[in-house]
Amino acid sequence: MWLVRPATPADLEPILEIAGTQGARLSSTLPKQQEALANKIRHSLDSFAGKTNDEEPPRFLFVLENTETGEILGTAGIDARAGNGQPFYNYRRDALIHASHELGVSRRVEVLYPSHGLTDQSLLCSFAIKPELRTTDAFELLSRARLLFIAEHREWFSNRMVVEIQGVQEEDGSVPFWDSLGRHFFNMDFQTADQYSGTLSKTFIAELMPPNPIYVTLLSPKAQEALGQAHKLTVPNLELLQREGFQAGCYLDIFDAGPVLEARTDSLRTLVTSDRKELHASHEDAGETCLIAAGEGEDFRCTLTPVAVTLGGKVQVPVRTWQLLNKSAGDTVRVAPL
Amino acid sequence: MLVIRPLQENDLDDLYTMALNAGKGLTTLPADRELLQRKIDHARETFNQRCAPEAGLYLFALEDIDTGKAVGISGIQARVGLDEVFYNYRLSLTVNASKELGVHVRTPTLQLSNDMTDTSEICSLLLSNDYQGGGNGLLLSRCRFMYLDEFRKHFSEKVFAEMRGVSDRNGQSPLWDALGAKFFDMEFSEADKLSGLGNKSFIAELMPKYPIYVPMLPDSARAVIGRVHENTVPALKMLQAEGFNFNGLVDIFDGGPVVEAFVHNIRTIRESVNRYALVTSKSMDLEAPPAERVMVSNRSFRDFRVTTMPAKYIGPETVRMPPEVAEALQVQSGDSVRLAPLKEGGFWPIHSHRAGDNVDEASENRIKKYRSHSSWD
């Protein structure tokens, strides 16, 4: 069975392997360096245990495990405060009207403003899954398990959620938006900059980012086309998040101009449709497959299970599911339809 | 003989012909009769002191006395940026550095600025093709410094000139195509014309206000920022010889440089001296190459006149001139005139005091004497 649970130091090697296969863009939230990743896992465990402070806000890292083989198949994360105590950088795409009465000319001029507006909102991040699972229910389990975690620990998270979606990248690895803009200021290729943004403090972004707004019309045509466009590979993820209620607003990633999706936390479908139920036994695999989550903090577990709902807010699930969740009859679980 | 004089009512036809022949790129003198007439009117009011000093537009014509035609024009605008906002880009530098990464990136930017506001501009220089050469261009340009010097209180301490930037034979400007056109939706020549007609508010309304990062512009545009049109190279060299320097500002349309100098540092002004006119009926040879000629001006605000003559007639206190020169200058014997070399490094029989020169006692005394003369009138 597939199980989502907090990452532990023992997961280090398999996570590194997954991070290594995911291309450049993920590295900003899922480091490829052993030490950086070990730190991240340690911080995540502290976060699950509720042992963090304001300087280093909680960052949670989950893994998807095949419970039969013990294999780690994917990762997903939540940063409780985007920017993690430092500014969270985006471009805000906005427009100015340049109009001349005298000439009878009116023109819409698009501008990218450097913005920290999304700082401290909760961020879904570090999503990576083995390619063979992309079309299975495990994909949805891994992504939405985070939302069940948020539902269970609502007070740890802000009222608004954001997700950065990877932007357009060419076959050869070049990123049109980066080449037209960031490259001039950072004097490094996209991969290097992206990696730094994961491993180093974000001050280097502040130091190197152009401080003034950027006129869209001065970007290369390819870069203009890439604004707010998602990478082909991220389409399933994008669609899943859109079904949850995330929408692209006016914010863009500063490196690749990928869209930043936004949502009100309490309006997310998983939070609206999930319910707390009392756990009871079922002796057969009857009922619809649902997401089921239980456990506080470091004990959080989430999996897929057939669920038969009985009257009075009780659910009947197979006993093997109990074991995965470390729960027994009468305990409270959270259930959401797939 | 050629003489500089204030622009007059009857110069309109000659001006129009000159403007027509000049083609695109001369924003201060478009081929538009109505506009040219307005300029003439403005200049007339200025010389007659019927407009506020800061609104003055001093336009001079180069007249061929033999034909009575105006064959060149040059001007000084007393102050820019008062009626209309005056725009330039400041070529600036932003450094982004990260010690952590060992990165140090310099990014040139173009920042919209109004820095030249309230400064005097030398402008509108145009000389008919038939009269190019022989130092006529020098006279047409440098006569303005003689005027600036005489009437300093009407002008700012610093003067500047906008040099025409790079454009190709079809009037296409690489900077305009890469930058202006993205915001204006019109051809360079069209925008240039509008700007010349004085409709400058459209610039403020349509122009990008935030700094432009130069590396984001194509190579062709970057290459012309601060560069002059090939036809303008001689004019730039002439101004550089006068002590003008690029001040970091460029034209917002074509990227041509702005050069500036403090009035008291301008070479023509530093080297100029006063003498008394001595009109002589003896026949005089007025022919001499430009390097051996001097500009000689009367000292009239309303009817300023400048012509050139050989330097060899300058004496310790007087300058000899034949009646036709005196007439062109509208001076008589005993009137004070001002003299300056026409060409830098040319023959100049005066040892005026210049910084860095070794001044012996004799010449020191001579200078004092000349100074007392110039304060005498």
From TrEMBL, chain A:
<dbReference type="Pfam" id="PF04958">
    <property type="entry name" value="AstA"/>
</dbReference>
<dbReference type="InterPro" id="IPR016181">
    <property type="entry name" value="Acyl_CoA_acyltransferase"/>
</dbReference>
<protein>
    <submittedName>
        <fullName>Arginine N-succinyltransferase</fullName>
    </submittedName>
</protein>
<dbReference type="InterPro" id="IPR007041">
    <property type="entry name" value="Arg_succinylTrfase_AstA/AruG"/>
</dbReference>
<keyword id="KW-0808">Transferase</keyword>
<dbReference type="GO" id="GO:0008791">
    <property type="term" value="F:arginine N-succinyltransferase activity"/>
</dbReference>
<keyword id="KW-0012">Acyltransferase</keyword>
<keyword id="KW-0056">Arginine metabolism</keyword>
<dbReference type="GO" id="GO:0006527">
    <property type="term" value="P:L-arginine catabolic process"/>
</dbReference>
Automatic annotation (TrEMBL), chain B:
<keyword id="KW-0808">Transferase</keyword>
<keyword id="KW-0012">Acyltransferase</keyword>
<dbReference type="InterPro" id="IPR016181">
    <property type="entry name" value="Acyl_CoA_acyltransferase"/>
</dbReference>
<protein>
    <recommendedName>
        <fullName>Arginine N-succinyltransferase</fullName>
        <ecNumber>2.3.1.109</ecNumber>
    </recommendedName>
</protein>
<dbReference type="InterPro" id="IPR007041">
    <property type="entry name" value="Arg_succinylTrfase_AstA/AruG"/>
</dbReference>
<dbReference type="Pfam" id="PF04958">
    <property type="entry name" value="AstA"/>
</dbReference>
<keyword id="KW-0056">Arginine metabolism</keyword>
<dbReference type="GO" id="GO:0008791">
    <property type="term" value="F:arginine N-succinyltransferase activity"/>
</dbReference>
<dbReference type="GO" id="GO:0006527">
    <property type="term" value="P:L-arginine catabolic process"/>
</dbReference>
<dbReference type="InterPro" id="IPR017650">
    <property type="entry name" value="Arginine_N-succinylTrfase"/>
</dbReference>
